[in-house]
Amino acid sequence: MQIESNTKYCRVEGAASEEDRLSDLPDDVLHSIVGRVPLKQAVRTSALSTRWACLWLHALAASAVLDFTDSEFVRGQFLGRIVATVNRCLEVHGAAPIDVFRVALSPFDAYGRDVVRWAATALVRGAREVGVDLTQHADVRGALELPVDLFQAESSLAVLSLGRCSLRDVPPGTPGLAGLTSLSLNQVDVTDDAVRDVVSRCRLLEFLSLESCHLLVSVRVAGDRLRGLEIVRCLAMRHLQVAAPVLESVAYHGDVLLIWREDEPSGVEFVGPGGRTDARPELKDAYLTHIGYGEYDEVIHEFAYSGFLDQVAHAKILTLCSVGMRHREEERLFAEGDVDAPNLEELQLLMDSISMGDDDVTRFSGFLELVVAPLLERLFIRCEIALDHLTFLKVVNFRGTRRELRVLRFVLRRAPVLEQLVLVTPEDVGTPGDHDQQESVRLLLKVVQEHVSKISKAWLWQEPRVTLCRPREDDGRSPAHTKYYHHDQA
């Protein structure tokens, strides 16, 4: 669809009108430019001139990649407006092919049918990748029920990512899932049997990620092409069995409790054909950590990782937390033997700084003595500070300096459930009536929001609300101690 306009001037607030050379460029060039910037910034270009009013929409519609996961675009907008934007984009897109479709929304209760329709539309138009993320806010309950017929027809779908969706009505052997090479499930009510059946019937599957799927207890994964496996915060899981001959990468964050009962399987095992335990895959890397998962209890967690390290010690790259080192030290009391790591080239040890004591330091040195790694070239030690329950953070006298932003980044990356961030500037910043000062506050807020957004995408479960204000405007929570004695010193 062509956009016809003879407009050659663009009005810029606070400045005289000047020649708008950008608008003289051909539509395909403008579409390419607008299509490369974040969605929120692309939408803002509609204010430049009448020529640009719908340019971002047509630029997005002209692309085979429809991505509505930009947190900057979602934040601060009514959900109905976001839904209307996606609907409009699909309408303008017409019957053109779609290669990738991603959307992130929350809450979704009133628009569940829209989300299902979008996914169905993308599949009909040949989408290779579909992502539906409804996990943006931790306080939302329930999941989006995906209909039984969504994946019934054969499709080009290869990459599927679902967050807070229900697969209860979707049969594991449905034709639309047969060609999957990558499957990621986050907060999905999938069961042990469903995981086993899906993986076994998706014969091309190379990557599987299960995160916060709390119905999983005893998981069995068998795939001839499976190369990557991630299991993160699946609270009820007690048993993991993996039969994947070409598996290269394993990441596990959580508990595997060994409760020796005849009627209940437990622990971790990598098996070969026929259930052979002596035919393990040649892992390239393995990641095993308990940090941030919950409180450590010496009675309950005494053998939480018993045997897991032995299963992955032959990897070339290994990351292990201090809890795992503690388990190994305790197991040494019952069974002699070192950790045989004949292929290990890189070892990273994550130390929980908050709970670290003298015993942990002793176990650290003892663990290094236990590891037999003749090829080890690189050793990394990372001290971790976990702020798993932190929901509120206030920084006073914040000017936005580089060092202050580094401190902010340090805390945010360790507070996955942070809900609110309050930044209080010094009194001399943003003085009323001073346009330059107020403009500096606006720019500072923009910098901070962009900073927080980038961190949120990579590290946090949700994006916290950011408030920037002066001391006289701060009416939020304050610490119990508001008198600081060092201020009284001469």
From TrEMBL:
Pfam families xref list: F-box, FBD, LRR_At1g61320_AtMIF1
Entry's transmembrane regions: none
| UniProt xrefs under SUPFAM superfamilies | F-box domain, RNI-like
Positions of the F-box domain: 22-56
What domain of life does the native source organism fall in?
Answer: Eukaryota
- The UniProt record lists the FBD domain at 387-423
What Gene3D superfamilies does its record include?
Answer: Ribonuclease Inhibitor
InterPro entries documented for this protein: At1g61320/At1g61330-like (IPR053772), F-box-like_dom_sf (IPR036047), F-box_AtFBL13-like (IPR053781), F-box_dom (IPR001810), FBD (IPR006566), LRR_At1g61320_AtMIF1 (IPR055357), LRR_dom_sf (IPR032675)
Residues in At1g61320/AtMIF1 LRR domain copies? 114-256
Q: What is this protein called?
A: F-box domain-containing protein
* Organism, as annotated: Triticum aestivum (Wheat)
